[in-house]
Amino acid sequence: YPSGNLAIMVTREGDQMICTVQEDEPRTTKIRALFQSDGRSTCYYPNGDEWINMSIQGGQYLDQAGSRVKRWMWPNLSPGPHVPLSPIFISLNRHVGVRILAQDKIIISFLAMGRQAKFNMGTKVQVGAAGQPPAPAWLGRDELLLLAFRVRILQLLDKMRGCISFPSSEQWKKMQPPTYVLTQAVKILELCAAADISEELHSSIQATVNA
Predict the structure, then answer these.
(1) φ, ψ at 147 (rounded to 5°)
(2) What DSSP string describes 155-166?
(3) For residue 189, what is the enclosing H or E element?
(4) Between the CA of residue 57 and those of 60, 64, 93, 121, what are the distances in Å?
(5) What CA–CA distance (Å, rounded) separates 88 from 143?
(6) Surface-to-core class of residue 86, CB atoms within 10 Å of its CB (0-12 exposed, 13-18 middle, 19+ buried)
(7) Given its phi and psi angles, is residue 113 left (phi above 0), alpha (psi -120 to 50 degrees) or beta?
(8) If you placed Cys at 148, which of 59, 131, 175, 205 could pair as Cys (CB 3.0 to 4.6 Å)?
């Protein structure tokens, strides 16, 4: 950002690319969006609530109250009729926008000081031998809570390591959590969106992993 804060980070984890968008804040690592090359992506409102969630099957758009505004399925990845995607454009903040045109055309744009950068994090998911993408995992209430607490513990341990490494500095407050922790947090929220759980439990798990 013009402020000097990190805006967009693209990393590789194994054979997967991950694009992370952070908020323009000096002392936090608030995640505004996370895009994975395996077809899973999530965008968040400024308060941390889920805005858009996408998987290899399709996606959904939520309002700030948590109600579903629209839902779609990617073409050719589900049998029978499917709900098509109408192009979506959202502004995460005044510098970063996201345009969703198709499964292989998910554009993250960054504009500042008259210059622009674009990243296409869309992908074409390869279907399995049976002609269908792998089915999503289904977990119960207890399993989801355990996974959320595990991510929270990993976040706290990372902060402890930062304090130990920089005991007399606030530099550790600006350090980005490990990519695998961010990825696990997003995966848990995706599982919550697919699971048959209450809104209260969903909100509790979301607050735990985004703390």
Answers:
(1) -65, -40
(2) HHHHHHHHHHHS
(3) helix 179-194
(4) 11, 23, 27, 16
(5) 33
(6) exposed
(7) left
(8) 205
Which residues have C-beta within 8 Å of that of residue 182, sequence separation ≥ 6?
Answer: 18, 20, 31, 34
The structure's pTM equals: 0.61
Q: What is the pLDDT of residues 27-45, one digit of tens each?
A: 766 889 999 888 889 999 9
The token pair that represents 156 in the structure block: 């706290």
Q: Which of 5, 20, 11, 58 is nearest to 173 (CA)?
A: 5
Phi-psi map region of 80: left, alpha, beta (phi>0 left; psi -120 to 50 alpha) = left
Tokens coding 122: 């869309």
Classify 72 as helix, strand or coil: strand
Which pair of structure tokens corresponds to residue 63?
């309002």
